[in-house]
Design a protein that fits this description.
Blueprint: E1 2-6, H1 9-26, E2 31-34, H2 41-52, E3 62-65, E4 67-69, H3 80-87, E5 99-100, H4 109-122, E6 128-131, E7 153-156, H5 159-165, E8 178-181, H6 184-189, E9 192-197, H7 202-210, E10 228-233
Parallel strand pairs: 1-10, 2-3, 2-6, 3-5, 6-9, 9-10
Antiparallel strand pairs: 4-8, 7-8
The chain binds 2-amino-2-deoxy-6-O-phosphono-alpha-D-glucopyranose.
The site of 2-amino-2-deoxy-6-O-phosphono-alpha-D-glucopyranose has 14 residues, from helix 5.
């Protein structure tokens, strides 16, 4: 694993965009695994700026997002589909038909998990998977558990995750308690993994990447990934 510490969130965002940008330049039709949350916002801004300036071309890029809340339709401003459309897809020249997220409002979630697993596999797994990390060590919505869930699955969110995500909702009772997430299998099959973490995540980053590999800290599995880079900002 490669651990890079940078001074600020701005530097983290620029560096993450450099790495993702290099992936797009090397393989214009690459599959990018993408994440939501506050952490990637700066990275997405940088990518959008580079696309606007003509330095990057997303016209052949395919994207697969990690996760989605259960029960939210894509047009719900709290959904991850909405977040991605607002913060990245509408700002780069990606073909919307090539952008994929699990459908949290599917009538049959079991079938939806199978569909999404097959879709990600059919695309040949991500060339590069971008990840944030939860304060409890979750990646995607793979919460601390007894084992590492390998496939796309639905999950009951941990209380701490619901609390952390409630900052983005008007009322705490609006925060979904269930989500659908890519499993650890797809993340580990990505050719390259890039995890970005702000200064508030220093403690969990230390635990995940310098402690034991355990499903109680899901991100710790990345210690076994063949090409994982972690960028941590000091402020
Ligand atoms: C959310 C997402 C994760 C994200 C994490 C951290 O629950 N499902 O993919 O990495 O929380 O979010 P943030 O970057 O806002 O701290």
């Amino acid at each position: 694993m490669k651990m890079i510490q940078v001074e600020s969130y701005e530097k983290l965002s620029r560096l993450a965009a450099d790495i993702i940008g290099a992936q797009v330049l090397l393989k214009p039709s690459c599959v990018l695994g993408l994440a939501t949350g506050s952490s990637p916002l700066g990275t997405y801004e940088n990518l959008a700026a580079r696309c606007r300036e003509g330095l990057l071309d997303f016209s052949q890029v395919r994207t697969v997002n990690l996760d989605e809340y259960c029960g939210l339709t894509p047009d719900n401003p709290q959904s991850y589909r909405y977040f991605m459309d607002q913060n990245l897809f509408s700002k780069v020249n990606v073909d919307p038909a090539n952008t994929h997220l699990p459908n949290g409002a599917a009538p049959d979630m079991e079938a939806e998990c199978e569909r999404y697993e097959a879709l990600v596999e059919g695309l040949g797994w991500p060339d590069l998977q971008l990840l944030g990390i939860g304060h409890n060590g979750h990646i995607g919505f793979n919460e601390p558990a007894e084992d590492f869930p390998t496939r796309v699955h639905t999950v009951r969110l941990a209380e701490s995750t619901i609390r952390a995500n409630s900052r983005l909702f008007d009322r705490p009772e609006d925060v979904p308690t269930m989500a659908v997430t890519m499993g650890i299998g797809a993340i580990m099959k990505a050719r390259r993994v890039l995890l970005i973490a702000g200064a508030d995540k220093a403690e969990i980053v230390e635990k995940a990447f310098h402690g034991p590999v355990t499903p109680q800290v899901p991100a710790s599995i990345l210690q076994l990934h063949r090409d994982a880079t972690v960028i941590l900002s000091r402020s």
